[in-house]
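Bench notes, bay 3.
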Amino acid sequence: MFWRKFVFTHFIFIFLSLNLYAQEECSTDQPFVSIPMSCIQQRAKLFDQAIEKNKEIAEKLEKLRADKTVDGSRIRRGEFLYKQLIDLSTPEAAKKTLYNTYFFRTAQGLLGKFVVRSVQITPLECNLYAEAVVYTPRGAVDVSSNFVIKNEANSWNTDSVSFDNTGNSDFILKREFGRCVLKNDEGVAFNFGKTQEVEEITGDPVLLYASYFLFGLAVFLIMQTFFKDEDRFKAELRLDEADEDEKKKLPNDVVLKYSQPFFKRYISPVVKSMKYKRKIKEKYKRKLASSGMNKFLTPEDFFAFKLFLIIGFPVVYLFGGKFIEIDVDISYVPFLIVAGFFYPDMWIKEKIKKRQEEILLNMPFVTDMLALSVEAGLDFVSAIQKVIEKAPPSALVDEFDIFLKETRVGASRAEALRALSWRIDMLPVSSFCATLIAADSVGSSNLAPILKELSAEIRQKRSSDVEKKGAQASTKMLFPMMFLILPAVVLIIAAPFVIGFMGG
């Protein structure tokens, strides 16, 4: 139950942290410059709602205009509200719009944001400055604009802006019914809220540089302590490796390579102290042996690897996305948590499959070498020693090496062969070991004919497997040919006739 509590606790922690992260990412408590594009994308539905609202106002205006009994002031009020974005009718109303942030979508569909930095309303002039950013395929572009309209010769002009620089008028500042108003034109926007403004703090440069120095010194001391501790941990790992022959390089797997220092140091001790560690060992011991990974990972280490990736995958996704400045979707995190837990199982399964294929490929050659060595006068153990020395390196040779070491430390030949069969977990190898155990139990001294017969059986099985895969290939190719190649061929043949028929 301990590991379940461990996983559940970390899952809740990550989930709550991500919720807080998502809430802070789209909050009016942050400055305008800190609002990311993802915040606008999350509220994209509000653009459509604003368009629908303007359509409703337009429909009501049509009905009011058609009704001759309606007071003209109601029509003027409706026309003033139609596509209205910012009301600048009075200096007081204009002042309330300061530091309001708006999300917009241009006529070309580009998303962006702007904040009202200054507003000036006089009887002869209306002036509004907006700091604006539009997100293009090339990145964020500053499109800050100053809207100015004036009363010249008793006539007010208008001022519009195209935030995507296509010539279309996205927003327009005009005078209607004696009041200034900023309206949606071909673009659409809505009010996100009044964002927090950060005042620039200045101070003594000496204190600033001193703080930089102290911060750098603190980081240096922390990292120095960490690496000293890491060196000590690596030294302890080297001391744990009693046999120099077992010191082989870690398999070329990026996830395992960069995860192992962390989960072996911090999570493996926790797993080893669990109440149900025996079940963990029983579940993963044979899988690790069959994959050849038991030299590098214990069952406890493997389970710690799974627990570490529950946290590791989401952390790499979130911080990696922020580091390379791409938008991250929080909804992917639960899938990454599940993928992190099951990735080691899929990885070890693939390792077992590849290793078993390699062993099956090398078995006939190795068995022939054993038969030749036995015919030359060597006993079975000496023949295996000769195979280890002369045969090319392979997983099967490694297993025979383990078999030889087990016999040297006191295991009987039958026990070592059973252990070999248990580790590899393949029917041809199990049959090979069972035959040798049976021959050994009846005291047979001439193993050469038995080994030759086993080699012939293994070759025959391998040939039958190849033929079986070849027979399956035609069936597997049927569907791609029917749904991909055949339609293209029919199109090429029939197209000229169809075009000629349509052309008369």
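Next record in the batch:
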Amino acid sequence: MAVGLLSHVVSDLILGKPALPWLPSNASVRDALRALKQLGDGVSELSIWDCSGKICSHDIGDPLAQSDVGAHINCRCVGKVCMQKIVCHLASEKSLFDFPEALDVPVSSLLEHNATNPVVQHVDPDASLLEALDLIARGVQNLVIPITRKSIHNVKQVKGSTTLKARSLPANLNIVVPKDHGGQEYCWLTPEDVLRFLLGSISIFSPLPALSIEALGIIRSDVQMIEVGQDACSELELIEMACQDSSAVAIVDSTTSSPGTVHFVGDISCSALQTCNELASLALISLSAGDFLAFVQDCRKPPQILVDIIRTRVHEKLGLGMRNSSHIKQITLKPENVTFLLHKLEMWEESSSSEDDEYGSASPNGPHDLSHKWHSMHLRNSRKGFSVRCRSGPIFCSPRSSLIAVVLQALAHREQYVWVTREDNSLYGIVTIRDILTVMFNHIKTFN
């Protein structure tokens, strides 16, 4: 059975995967934002491509951008963007002072440039499963693989008449589909895909599945965290780093915990921000970490108290920036750049005014007293689920949880990580899919 597993190549793992929607590296952040909104459910990331030929030189989505067969050899996927990256970019102080300009910068400026440890890497479809595991263990998050005729043929054999098709996209969607690469389509393989594939042969890894994650030593204690009362934007770099690592930033409360421990409240992650839009950047730059957590849970119709806080603090930051920051003084402030954002906040107010929040008049501290109520809101929502597309809140496990239990939990929720907490809900650490695959990869190497 082990020999059969090791004989697999990466093309066996991509059967039926849709072609990647993508943007050229010279596209703007505005283009990426529009594409993420229009792609909708199931797509949280866009691949960014750099082509030396004519493929990416036309306007995005231009049908004339089609090139000759074989031209795809000049095209390389150079990275990926998600809503979290865009929100962090727009939450910078410079972006606040010229929001339209921040939307018009090339999307490639949001990518991390690390030639030594790239997060995206092209892989031959005949590369072995071991090679894929080795790349993931070294930090690669997405393996870009060309969809071959062999893959299409194999899918057609499944259930007789199944045909591989690219994702069905809205007719007015202004993005490029990978077939523009000289007729070549690409998909990518994620650590989640590999782990799901290995789950079918989990008995090979005995006794690892039955061992606790604590015994295996895969719990990371170097967790990125923000105090719940701290300004969310004060740790903007941490949030950006978590996005690059396919991890998350923990929101913690040390005031209710014993010395040396912190109480886990929630997290900020790519999946948490997937349902938000560019206005989340104003919340990030204006709210505390706890209030931002409450905002993200219902970013389409945030509580009115948060809308008021955001509006007030945006005005305050503009005023303080002009007086106290020598860097900001060099920027020509255009009031209209923020006016249209505040107008959208007013639209939020109109849409949410007709609905009473459940923590409204019943609160002993007054309507929507989020300074005291965000904590109970989160614990209820994270445990029982809340109305957010593709996410029901952070997932938890115990240090004594078995490896197989954590694997099933991560795959069921389609998360790249699982938080590890003690019985008193204090934060112990985090386990990532990459750590799990590294342990399994080291076990497989003993077969040879």
